[in-house]
Write a structure and sequence with these properties.
Elements (H helix, E strand, L loop, with lengths): L9 E5 L6 H10 L3 E6 L17 E5 L5 H8 L4 E4 L12 H18 L4 E5 L11 H16 L3 E6 L2 E2 L6 H10 L2 E5 L5 E2 L2 E2 H13 L7 E4 L5 E2 H12 L4 E5 L1 H11 L9 H6 L13 H4 L6 H9 L7
Length: 313
């Protein structure tokens, strides 16, 4: 029997197949939204279809750098969510194209089609890390879209962790093959890691409650860790004892420069600039408390999935 969806509100999710996107789609499907999951490659996003009933989730090819492509999927929607982001530039996927131009295209489409609300996911500390091109593109995008489309809610999460992340898993995998773990500047940079499901729940709350719209939400977990403490926790969860090699910012720059020719470089020059600023929630900012969410501890949340890296030898 085909799913009856004519009466359902429609939400467009840009970046639906990403790490955060799959959780957002799952929650919105449970709330009976009709979901347009906009991705670059629909054939690689078929896992999203199982989150809803037949016909509830549709996969649409979209390039947010192309205004016409964005317009074609935004028409007749009620809510738009922009989750698209990149950590490193590669070929034509630049911070300007993705974070700035893409966000502007989405905001203009929201204005053109009288969308009720836009939820835009940025990142924590982008207003304080202005040496970084990543941060500058994110922060400039925030300012631009607010001038284009009035009813926009901005979500700024700290580093997001979860079973599919490219953060805790990266170091766990590294520990399986290397006796050494590199840390930069003695691992002093502070983070407030946030669980991916908690961020998805925050977006869900904003979409469901109009009173929560129009604000900036800075999302961090319940604990603040130094980078070294995070690595310590990862090693504890996977039962490994590794030697840490400290790299000064100067030596890390040399490493980043040498490896910059590779598409999956371990660290980039721009990421080093981000590490100069603590990634924690500013005091008096809106966050999980204002959304009625108790965030999950990294110690508890990461233990559940990092155990798969434990070995018997």
């Amino acid at each position: 029997m085909c799913f009856q969806y004519n009466y359902l509100p429609t939400v467009v999710v840009f970046g639906a197949s990403g790490f955060l996107g799959r959780y957002v789609v799952a929650l919105l499907a449970k709330n009976n939204f009709l979901i347009k999951a906009c991705v670059r490659s629909p054939s690689r996003a078929r896992h999203l279809l199982v989150n809803g009933k037949l016909g509830q989730v549709s996969l649409l090819r979209c390039n947010i750098s192309d205004a016409e492509s964005v317009n074609s999927v935004t028409d007749k929607a009620d809510v738009v969510i922009n989750l698209v982001g990149i950590l490193t530039e590669y070929r034509n996927q630049t911070f300007k194209n993705i974070h700035l131009d893409g966000a502007i295209n989405i905001a203009k489409a929201c204005k053109k089609y009288n969308i009720k609300s836009l939820v835009h996911v940025s990142a924590l500390s982008v207003d304080r890390s202005l040496e970084s091109n990543y941060a500058k593109s994110k922060f400039t995008a925030e300012k631009c879209i607010k001038t284009i489309f009035k009813n926009v809610t901005i979500v700024r999460p700290s580093v997001i962790y979860g079973a599919e992340d490219d953060f805790t898993n990266k170091f766990a995998k590294m520990a399986l093959i290397s006796p050494f773990i590199p840390i930069i500047n003695q691992g002093l940079t502070k983070f407030q890691p946030v669980n991916v499901l908690d961020v998805a729940k925050a977006i869900e709350k904003i979409v469901l409650n109009k009173k929560l719209e129009g604000n900036i939400y800075c999302l961090g977990g319940p604990e603040i860790f130094s980078f070294r403490e995070i690595i310590d926790l990862i090693m504890k969860n996977i039962g490994k004892d590794k030697i840490y090699i400290n790299l000064s910012f100067f030596n890390a720059k040399i490493l980043a420069f040498i490896t910059s020719i590779f598409p999956n470089a371990p660290i980039t020059l721009d990421q080093l600039k981000l590490l100069k600023v603590n990634n924690i929630v500013p005091p008096k900012s809106r966050g999980f408390k204002h959304l009625g969410i108790n965030p999950t501890s990294l110690q508890i949340g990461s233990k559940r999935y990092l155990s798969r890296y434990k070995t018997s030898y």
